[in-house]
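Duplicate of earlier report; Lysophospholipid acyltransferase 5 input re-posted below.
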Amino acid sequence: MDSNQMILIKLFISGLMSYILGIIYQLCLTKQSIRVKHFYNISTGLLISYFNFGIQTGHSFITCMIIWSTIRLFGATRLMVALNCIFCMSYLLCGYYDKYVNDVHEITWTMPQCVLTLSLMALSFDIYDGQRNLKSRKQCSNDKKTLPLMNEDTALERIPTFIEIISKIYFPPIFLIGPQVKFKDYIDFIESRESIFESCWKPSILRFFSGIIYLSIFQIGNLYWPTRFLLTDDFKSMGLLAKLSCIAVLNKITLCKYISGWLISEGACIMYGIARNPLNTHQHDRCSNVSIFHFETTATFRGIIESFNITTNQFAMKYVYKRLRFLGSKMLSHLFTLFFLALWHGFATGYYNTFALEFLIVKMETDIANKVIEYRTKNHRFNQILNNIYIRWIIYLLMRIHVIYMLSYSLVSFTTLDSQQWTSILSEVYFFGHFIYIGWFIVSMLFNYFIPIISSQRKVPIEMKNK
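Output:
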């Protein structure tokens, strides 16, 4: 058994422990003081971290100390937000660089550091938003005006204590692989004295066994069809369609690994009680990181983004994309957001290729959808054809096939990472996806640039004629 397999076993044991700890919390600690709850979450989280990463647990603790010190020193200012974001990303990237220099390919402390980085960056923004909202309220009361408040669902109007910060960071079900949990939701959860074990244990166990099913598919599939098969002569001897189908199957198996981890982690969050939806107490979806039905049935890449790694995508939308409004371009904001996500994953070229393809594919999907909608409004016959149930099913199946094949094509570089490997695999299918999507992007940009010029030139003779 290699070291990477041992780490994966430890992660699985940690996931199981989170369920047991959640049961203890629900049955014994909900009525206890907030201080006792914090101590329980910090101590158990640190033990789980030490069990997995040993003395390297110090990296996360040091990061928390520096972030809290910066918050106390500079307060809820833009400088504080900038310093914390730069420090968190720099510390994480130093960890990646150390792995690269030492040629380390196994899971290390950088994995939970990824989760911690986003969590502490979000905390810094939330504190800034909260203090800004307080100032807005005071201004409203003085001027008798109503001003819009920023991100009320996440904004913090008081600066958390160091104990609160590390309690949330080391919260057992989310520390290792997520999901991202709003700090405001965590504080509400800690302050609640209600035990919901009777209503949460069934959906928790259901999520756990769903995760086990996906984990089993990954283990069995990876045993017979490992990713390295794509580098063999057997793969190279296949036809183009067979190669694409093989890539689709192998990457579908790989995705099961991520989905299983998120499902097991989400189940633990449900067991603790933090996942209960405050708007509908019968639902426990507040920590959902993957929507299984949506992911397995969606016919668009936008649907994949909405249903896969949900909390990370929500972070990117709220704290990166929307904060880039000053660029004045949705496309530029989208590009910078995807670059941030690629950098957050690491230095490997495979990450940047995957996110670049995501941008290009979503751009093509959006362009086509807009043109179809525009033509449907102008052409009644075309609209009737598309409303036919059989035509709709045919279109859905074609779009679903496109998503399955091209999602796997995009993920080849994400799963292999090494530039020589993923370029070798994609060269076997002639980089056809790159040609399609890059070609569409170039043509659409040229089209959008020249059509307004041509239209304006046509208007001039018409206006002259009218005169």
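Residues 1-195 form one domain.

Merging into the original ticket.
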